[in-house]
Automatic annotation (TrEMBL):
<keyword id="KW-0804">Transcription</keyword>
<feature type="binding site">
    <location>
        <position position="90"/>
    </location>
    <ligand>
        <name>Zn(2+)</name>
    </ligand>
</feature>
<keyword id="KW-0805">Transcription regulation</keyword>
<dbReference type="Pfam" id="PF01475">
    <property type="entry name" value="FUR"/>
</dbReference>
<keyword id="KW-0479">Metal-binding</keyword>
<comment type="similarity">
    <text>Belongs to the Fur family.</text>
</comment>
<feature type="binding site">
    <location>
        <position position="133"/>
    </location>
    <ligand>
        <name>Zn(2+)</name>
    </ligand>
</feature>
<dbReference type="InterPro" id="IPR002481">
    <property type="entry name" value="FUR"/>
</dbReference>
<keyword id="KW-0408">Iron</keyword>
<feature type="binding site">
    <location>
        <position position="130"/>
    </location>
    <ligand>
        <name>Zn(2+)</name>
    </ligand>
</feature>
<keyword id="KW-0238">DNA-binding</keyword>
<dbReference type="GO" id="GO:0003700">
    <property type="term" value="F:DNA-binding transcription factor activity"/>
</dbReference>
<protein>
    <submittedName>
        <fullName>Transcriptional repressor</fullName>
    </submittedName>
</protein>
<dbReference type="GO" id="GO:0005737">
    <property type="term" value="C:cytoplasm"/>
</dbReference>
<dbReference type="GO" id="GO:0045892">
    <property type="term" value="P:negative regulation of DNA-templated transcription"/>
</dbReference>
<keyword id="KW-0963">Cytoplasm</keyword>
<dbReference type="InterPro" id="IPR036388">
    <property type="entry name" value="WH-like_DNA-bd_sf"/>
</dbReference>
Length: 137
């Protein structure tokens, strides 16, 4: 079982709640914590919102999920980690899609001048209007 292996290899105890949360994030990229809770509930029945938040926090700490925090919106969670990909978000409907770094592998992690910092993430969000919403206007 993929999710079980992932938890173990990151030194996490395998619990039904963590499995359900991890699978929910894998099945529904860019889901909010509330959406993750809803999906997890369908899988395993009762799971408290707090348990979902706790699981998401530890999964993010261990690098199993990535947390994206668009300005003015709830955080989004996804299991595509480690490639520093960016996001396109529609201002009108909130549709969120992945977009690779502009050129090559994680170029945004190479700042023009890193000032001695060890950089591990460059958060880039492109805001705009998705094709569906553009057609409606
Ligand atoms: Zn849209
Ligand atoms: Zn993404
Ligand atoms: Zn980039």
């Amino acid at each position: 079982m993929e999710a079980e292996k992932a938890l173990r290899s990151h030194g996490l105890a395998v619990t039904a709640q963590r499995l359900a949360v991890l699978r929910a994030v894998a099945d529904t990229p860019h889901a909010t914590a509330d959406q993750v809770a809803e999906i997890a509930r369908k899988q395993i029945g009762a799971i408290s919102k707090q348990a979902v938040y706790d699981a998401l926090r530890i999964l993010a700490e261990k690098g199993l999920v990535r947390r994206v925090q668009p300005a003015g919106s709830p955080a989004l969670y996804e299991d595509r980690t480690g490639d520093n990909h960016h996001h396109l978000i529609c201002r009108t409907c909130g549709k969120t899609v992945d977009v690779d770094c502009a050129i090559g592998d994680t170029p945004c992690l190479s700042a023009a001048d890193d000032m001695g910092f060890l950089i591990d993430e460059a958060e880039v969000i492109y805001w705009g209007t998705c094709p569906d919403c553009r057609q409606k206007t």
